[in-house]
Amino acid sequence: MKKIVTLLYLIAGIVSVPLWGQQQPITDINFGDLPRPVPSVSSLISYTEAPVSLATGVPNIKFPLLGLSSIDKNIGTSLALQYHPLNMNGEEAGSEVGIGWSMFAGGVISREIVDELDERYDDAGWTAYKKNKFNDIYYYNLPGISGKFKIERNTDNNTFQIINLTPNNIKIDYTRSSNTATLIVNSFTITDDNGYKYIFNDYSQSRSYTHPQTSGTLYKSAFYLSQIKNSDDVELLSYTYQKDNRNKPGTAELLYQSCKIKNIMSPGMGSIAIDYNYDASLEGTMNDPYSITKVSLKNNNGGIVSQYGFEYSIQVENKRTLTRINKINLSNPTGSPLETTKLLYTDYYFDNVSGERACSSELQTPVSNSVGTLYRVILPTGGMVEYNFEANQYYVNKNIVNYVTPENFSDPEVQFMQSFAGIDFDTHVTNTYTFQVTGAPGQLKKIYIDFNADKYYPAFTTTDPQSFLDYTVDNDPDLTNTCYSFNDEALEGKSISYKTLYLMPGNHTIKITGTGGHGMITLSDIGSKPAPYKNAVSNDKKLGIRIKDVKYFNSALNSQPTKTVAYDYNVFNDSNSSSGYRFYPEMESLASDYTPVVVYKNVKVTNDSDNGYVNYYFKNPNDYPKTAYTYNGISTSFWPYYNVTKSGVMEKKEIFNNLNQLLSVVNYDFTFETLNQMPEVSVDGGVTKKAYLKSTKVITKDYTGNNRFVESKVETEFNPVNFKVASVKETSSDGNITEKTVTYAGGSAEYQNLENAYMTGIPVKTEVKNNGKLVSNTTVKYENSGNLYPSSVVSINPNDNSNKVAIKYDDYDSKGNVRQLTSNYNAATGAGTPTVIIWGYNQSFPIAKIEGVKLSDIGNLADDIILKSNTDADAASETTLINALDSFRSLPALRNASITTFTYDPLVGATTVTPPTGIREIYKYDKNGRLISVVDVNGNIIKDYKYNIKPQL
Questions:
Q1: How many Å apart are CA 105 and CA 103, to the nearest integer?
Q2: Once rounded to an integer, what is the mean pLDDT over residues 274-289?
Q3: Is 659 exposed, middle or buried (0-12, 13-18, 19+ CB in 10 A)?
């Protein structure tokens, strides 16, 4: 890890699966005192700093579990488990789903405490009170959006503002307590540029005892997503939490308050429930004492649609370890699971290299050279996937002249300690001995001398006889540096020492001094492996591990995989050199520790099923050189585009077949632009400002043989305000050019109502050209006075520029569902083709689509089918609804209308669809929500589905 103190300084083998011992847990750990105070949330930070990517060597290991939609098709939530190898290190806690794993559910704003807690000084009357600067970093993770921000304090006028540290077009607001001594946030609201509001009203609390002048500060350690609302303030999803208080042992003082997501509710659709188990024995250890035991998807009536359970043990790093994911059989919930995914782990051992012997009397404490890692996943089908990892490597040129010398121990990967001479001495025979130092003439060597002797009784007579043994080299007592020396007080006791010195090659003498004795002198020097050396540092445990290969087996009993995908990270034209480089995260605070991430420039992916391979080329920050820069009056360097290149940017992809023939090349040309309005942020070796992707050019060449190829090109420009696509130009291999331009609501007076609601990222106009000729031009209007939903879609005739209302949205219900629309609307006459949509199941699903009539024609005729859909909870009530829908279809007022009706098992699927012809299709599901058949109204099977799960061994 790297600690940056001041800007001035800133300028200047996979083995078999082991059985982990049940060691005593580390006790008295208070997460509130740690920089990342919430164990099951802090692991999400890894996905921001070291994202899943070929360039980082982080594989995508993810298990989707449950999904819950809302009445808005753009908003929903899902539960998924994801594994990150960098979350397996000793500093990470065992999360609520086990070490290395994260449960993505809802949203959270976690914080990293930098230096000291921002709101530490919360009492203006305190003698040690001061208006401190705020340094803590907040990480936000919510559906489709992630990033980080900090709160900046103006200490002169005691005001605060949020600085978003991620280039995106969101707005972050907060509410605060009445405390004026400092800022104590009560809630956050994040608004995206589509107008959706993510409200964080819930929070966990921790107590910090790190400040020497306080008895403990209670603070909000993370904020949790409470609601998602649309721009019209309609609630789309809500979240409730289980909150438990834990006091400091033996006191009534609150140590922490947990905040665990308990339910996610989608009004009218259903919910997700999460069950926990609390294990008091894990308090004070590097484990979240809460574990998730079960997650359930429920329909609007509380019926379970899908359910998973989880099993754990204390294994890796003596922490909670996820071992099984069970899909519960809803036909027999207490019986065997419908499906089981088994997870097996192992240790990855870094190369067992030893460094230079320390100049100390203390024994060197062995450092753990292994890290636990996911090893095998046994699938419900009986197949198995094996993940093999290896140490990350970064490039260092180790083949320069005098990279290592015998004078200095500098690289334990190529150097080692070696004994070159042993002298068995006895002063009764002689006091002088010789030894030879080999090496290049004129080049000093560092020598290590271990002296171990038994003393003789002093030959001379004194009133208080004393005995001792020592030695000199080449008759020079100042030549040696004493690391350790011990002389036993017993007259015939031990005399032991450890010394170092530097000698030239040649013959040298050791002369024994003192009262006499006998023993052994061992001389060691620094050896080195034969060159050439691998140009890589590969034994740094702090940098973690990368994926080496993934093997696929038909069965866990098979010894040979059916397919292996292997990853090679060396430079393509130099297999002796790693293509990895270390890059630190942006250093928003100079008082924090940061761990670098290795990013690779070259990654070769080989698939032995076809023996072909793909070469991936990436750019990193080194491809965008630093320039001279002055920051706060200090000369430093400016590193452009750091935030978008620090994790690697694709430059090229080459696809080869098994004959090493080039099949395809894709070149990526990215243009970035610095956001000058953003503040400077420190990086390793200078400062940077946030940047965004301004444009891309992707050129694909597909080779047809004999160096012939066809070429296509896609050029994309991005909007500098909302960072979304502004235009796309596609050139096909035959020379045809298609251009698409998108205009957004932001900055247009015509859409001031959207801008006021922060809906600046809504696309309102789209133009399409083919070979320079306009072929399509559509505009979406938002002219409703009572809401912010679209009012019409207007098409412009490219031939005469005349306007035509393609669709007019006539009416919405209270949840934003379209109740009536008119196609091909004539604004002058009011003519057009109306369509009415009847929404049932508590305004969540369309139960009738009626073409050719208006809402005014229907009046209250649909009230009965709406009420019956709201109470559809079982087969009997569904039959009642179907009968009501059939009666509705035959109403005289709708005789000339074209009607399609629907029924549903919410969160499972449609159960019946009856088109205007009246020929109904019926969809049947088993208790686990799987489609088993499609039948017609007479019971004839149209389609039949069978599910056969291979038993696991």
A1: 6
A2: 89
A3: exposed
Confidence band of 106 (pLDDT split at 50, 70, 90)? confident
Determine whether 430 is exposed, middle or buried from the number of CB atoms within 10 Å of its CB (0-12, 13-18, 19+): exposed
What is the arrangement of strands in the sheet containing 415-426, beginning at the earlier edge strand?
Answer: 415-426, 517-528, 445-455, 494-503, 481-487
95: phi > 0 → left, psi -120 to 50 → alpha, else beta; which?
Answer: beta
Neighbour count for residue 371 (Cβ, 10 Å): 21
Coil, strand or helix: which one is 536?
coil
Distance CA 780, CA 782 (A): 7
DSSP one-letter code for 58: B
Distance CA 347, CA 370 (A): 6
Positive or negative: CA dihedral 295, 300, 301, 306: negative
pLDDT (tens digit, 9 = 90+) per residue, 590-621? 656 778 999 999 999 999 888 899 999 999 99
Backbone angles phi, psi at 890, to 5 degrees: -95, 10
How many C-beta neighbours within 10 Å does residue 383 have?
Answer: 17
Could you tell me if 51 and 598 are in contact, meaning their C-beta atoms sit under 8 angstroms apart?
A: no
Span 341-388, pLDDT tens digits:
999 999 998 876 678 888 876 655 555 678 899 999 999 988 999 999
In which band, very low, low, confident or very high, does the pLDDT at 539 lie, cut at 50, 70 and 90? confident
- Are residues 345 and 373 in contact, defined by beta-carbon separation less than 8 angstroms? yes
The label of the residue with tokens 């007076």 reads 749
CA 679 to chain centre: 25
pLDDT at residue 34, as a whole number: 46
436 vs 8: CA distance, rounded Å = 48
177 to 37, 183, 204, 219, 255: CA distances (angstroms):
22, 7, 16, 12, 21
Helix axes 863-870, 875-889, angle to 10 degrees: 170
